[in-house]
Amino acid sequence: MIEKIATIEDVAEHAGVSIATVSRALHKPHVVSETTREKVQTAIAATGYTANVMARNLRLNRSGMILLLVPDIGNPFFSEILSGIEQGASKAGYNVLIGDTQNEPEREATYAAYLRSNQADAMILLNGRLPAPLANTPRGIIPPVVIACERIPGCNLPTVIIDNEKAAFSATKHLLDLGHSRIAHIAGPASNILTTDRVAGYRRALSSSGIEANPSLIYSGDFSIESGISAARALLKDIKNRPTAFFCASDGMAIGVIVAAKELGLRVPHDVSVVGFDDIHLAANYDPPLTTVRQPRRRLGEQAISLLLARLDKTGTIPEPAENPVIVPTELIIRQSTGPCPT
What sequence ranges are listed for the domain HTH lacI-type (predicted)? Predict the structure, then answer.
């Protein structure tokens, strides 16, 4: 005896709702009530219904794939962002393809071509620039794209970011309030927009306290632990003029500063204070626990996928966010790596 395959009609009958409501609950769950979603999910479990995703995608002329470009998949900063994006995409019936670009324009262009060949329906950029195929696309026909984490100057695509300048100001001001005046800044790569914004916040905080930024105390790194170690070794070797505090543009570089300080026999925070940026998992568990700017990374991912799904909604015109960019607030988390300026 051949077992009958459950259909969407069976689910609707069991749940006591219309077929259209079942379809919305499956493909646009945000537009139906929680009670209705629960009824539909219960009916699906009872009937054993399985959606034919491939057939639906063919019918709708879509791939069911969202492309996500990441500059370095090995960077722990991105883990919670990716999790927030994937969870939201999955709930909406999409799969996520992650492209690890390694900051190489050629790799970015290769992945972006997936949009033109209909291998992906939309894209989220975490790499801070438009791939060449999109940058050269005539205005008005760019496919659904959302920018997250790094703003792209001059680009009006929907964007979800933090206020990096304000966050850097807050981190530097914390050190100033502790009595530090010779504060070094370990920045990111000079070409990175995050570097521009965070250096600006650092400079503004110093200026607000009547201190002129000293170029010799600003060191360019690459967000890695190794670059933090190199920077700290260079800046701490001059015993008479070394900084008493460091504001670092990533937790990785801040951890590198602590490593170098310990190598030189310096105590953190008794001899030198250190502030990081991002609040990766290691920050709270390092020795000492790191004072840092907490980026709500999962929320960044959730906001990004929410904006993208709105742009993929074919029921009407593509909506624009109420504000652009969408600014997600940060928080300065004070732990044991900062203390009063040594006398």
Answer: 6-60
Q: H helices within the chain, ranges in order? A: 8-15, 19-27, 34-47, 53-60, 79-91, 105-116, 132-135, 164-177, 193-208, 225-236, 251-263, 281-285, 297-312
Number of Cβ within 10 Å of residue 256's Cβ equals 28
* Residue 220: CA count within 13 A, CB half-sphere: 7
Average pLDDT over residues 171-199: 96
* Averaged pLDDT of the chain: 87
Q: How far apart are CA 263 and CA 2, in angstroms?
A: 73
Model pTM score: 0.79
Peptide bond just before 269 cis, omega within 30 deg: yes
Instruction: Please tell me the distance from the alpha carbon of residue 296 to that of residue 323, in angstroms, as a whole number.
Output: 19
> What residues have CB less than 8 Å from 3, skipping those under 6 apart?
none
Residue 52 phi/psi, 5-degree rounding, is: -90, 90
C-alpha separations of 71 from 107, 154, 290, 319 in Å = 10, 20, 25, 28
Q: Is the model's pLDDT at 190 over the cut of 80?
A: yes
List the beta bridge partners of residue 160: 148, 326
What pLDDT is stored for residue 169 in this prediction? Answer: 98
